[in-house]
Amino acid sequence: MIPSFLLNAALRLAPSLPEPAIDLLARTTARLEYAFSSKRRRAVESNLAWIAGSGRLPGAPPPLRRTVRAIFESYHRFLLEYLSQRALGAHALDTKFRFEGMELLYEALSLGRGAVVAAPHVGNWELAGIATARLGHRVHVVTGVQFHPAFTGAARALKDRERILVSTPEEGFRPLLRTLREGGIVVLLADGDVFVRSLETEFFGRRVALPAGPALLARRARSPLLFAHAERRPAVTAGAGNGAHRPLERHVVSFDGVELPDPALPLKEDLLRLTRRVAEYQERAIAAHLTTWCIFRPLFPASDAA
Q1: Residue 39 domain-assigned?
Q2: Which residues sit opposite 226 in a β-bridge?
Q3: Is residue 203 assigned to a domain?
Q4: Whether 213 contacts 195, CB under 8 Å
Q5: Which of 32, 71, 205, 268 reaches 20 to 30 Å from 178, CA-CA?
Q6: Residue 243 lies in domain
């Protein structure tokens, strides 16, 4: 866990940093955490080892050590980008973000029951939420402790600044159902550990407990369940002509598919069906963007291969 005094220092400093400086700082701090956080490193290694052997990657498995280092770097870049969000000006939607599959979102919202969005910890999921809120949508998220218990208030204030509604798992579905009734979007990270109920489903060839929240909420509200992910994609080249910097990147917010709850099915059958669809879309997004998948806990049990 990152010390709270470093998080608060980064919160003050990050908005003033240019992108190349954020990139350099992220690479430096990621190397330090990789070297000293053996528990988190082993968790990432174990997850990647299983995925590499699952046969679900689009090509040959990348080198393990290089991929682990890339994930730590992606997480530190995510964190600095998140803490520098106050620097995102009025033109950020045009210069920093790209949206794909928006027709799926608008079609879902046209039904009048809001939309539940399930997404993985890929790319910069926090900035994806900010970008969606800046389009004028009412966005509601569920979070636990973010980064450090002493930093939770500051993290919530950043979301409040963007008019993003925040609930905790302890508050239950009531505030989320209210947002859906008002036509809003509830975003749930479906590969994390912030959940009350879970359902087992196949994930990269193994039985894994995934949060039941997306399926259960969509079923209860009769709202469409959308599958989305965030990714980084090269935009323009900084320092063109001298090769001084890597290509600058744009954040892509992609809506990949949608599933409707089926009230004609028994509740358990429908929840299992919807959760299986969540797992399928998450698996595709993670396999395509493995070096930016930031989960630092062992996700796959030692047995129970599917």
Answers
A1: yes
A2: 117, 258
A3: yes
A4: yes
A5: 268
A6: 4-292
Q: What pLDDT is attached to residue 6?
A: 65
User: Considering the chain, what is the average pLDDT of its residues?
Assistant: 89
Q: Is the pLDDT of residue 157 over 90?
A: no
Q: Can you give the pTM of this predicted structure?
A: 0.90
Residues of the chain with pLDDT > 70, as a percent, come to 89
Positive or negative: CA dihedral 296, 120, 218, 305: negative
At residue 36, the pLDDT reads 94
CB distance 232 to 119 below 8 Å: no
Question: What are the tokens at 184?
Answer: 């809003």
Provide the strand spans (E) within the chain.
97-100, 115-119, 139-142, 165-167, 185-189, 198-203, 206-211, 225-237, 247-259
Domain assignment of residue 300, yes or no: no
Element at 130 (helix H, strand E): helix 125-134
Q: What is the dihedral of CA 293, 189, 163, 136, to 10 degrees?
A: 90
Per DSSP, what are the bridge partners of residue 247?
A: 237
Is 134 a member of any domain? yes
Counting every residue written for the chain, the total comes to 306
* Region for residue 206 given its phi and psi (left: phi exceeds 0; alpha: psi -120 to 50; beta: otherwise): beta
Query: How many domains is the chain partitioned into structurally?
Result: 1
Distances from the Cα of 287 to the Cαs of 5, 110, 127, in angstroms?
35, 31, 21
Task: Tell me the C-alpha distance between 78 and 59, whole Å.
Answer: 26
